């Protein structure tokens, strides 16, 4: 069981359980299930609306999660959130290049994480 804490300046922090090892549950689907108001659009990794910042709960270990998928790479590059050099390093190290993720693409792993999201 992984604990995912959602945090926004506009809302109270909320910590929820995620089923570890599902290999399919995204941050966005977990947020929707728990009525957490993360902004989203396409839900397919194309628009960048669901941009979130992901780190470890205690701030000691980061970045968290698995490497970016191809859609995240394209969108985050276009948004200026990741550099070409960071992407190259990610393919060597097999870990995410930095804190920025797309909530609709990042799959929850068996690790406790903090997800910071902008919200209206
Ligand atoms: S909702 Fe469009 S990229 Fe996630």
Structure description:
- The chain is α+β, with helices and mostly antiparallel strands.
- Helices cover 22% and strands 23% of the residues.
- It is built from 3 helices and 5 strands; from the N terminus they run E-E-H-E-H-H-E-E.
- The protein has a 5-stranded mixed sheet with strand order 2-1-5-3-4, covered by helices on one side.
- The longest helix has 10 residues, at 84-93.
- It is globular, with a radius of gyration of 13 Å.
- It starts with a strand and ends with a strand.
- The structure holds FE2/S2 (inorganic) cluster.
- Residues 40-43, 45-50, 75, 102, 104 line the site of FE2/S2 (inorganic) cluster.
CATH architecture: Roll
Give the percentage of residues in beta strands: 15-25%
What is the CA–CA distance across the termini? Answer: 30 Å
The spatial strand order of the largest sheet comes to: 2-1-5-3-4
Structural class: alpha+beta
How many discrete domains?
1
Number of helices: 3
CATH class: Alpha Beta
């Amino acid at each position: 069981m992984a604990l995912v804490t959602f945090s926004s300046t506009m809302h109270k922090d909320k910590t929820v359980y995620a089923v570890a090892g599902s290999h399919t549950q995204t941050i966005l689907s977990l947020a929707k299930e728990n009525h957490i108001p993360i902004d989203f659009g396409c839900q397919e990794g194309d628009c960048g609306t669901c941009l979130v910042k992901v780190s470890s709960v205690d701030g000691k270990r980061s970045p968290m999660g698995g490497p970016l998928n191809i859609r995240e790479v394209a969108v985050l590059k276009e948004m200026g959130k990741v550099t070409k050099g960071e992407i190259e390093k990610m393919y060597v190290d097999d870990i995410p290049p930095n804190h920025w993720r797309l909530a609709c693409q990042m799959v929850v792993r068996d690790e406790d994480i903090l997800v910071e999201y902008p919200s209206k």
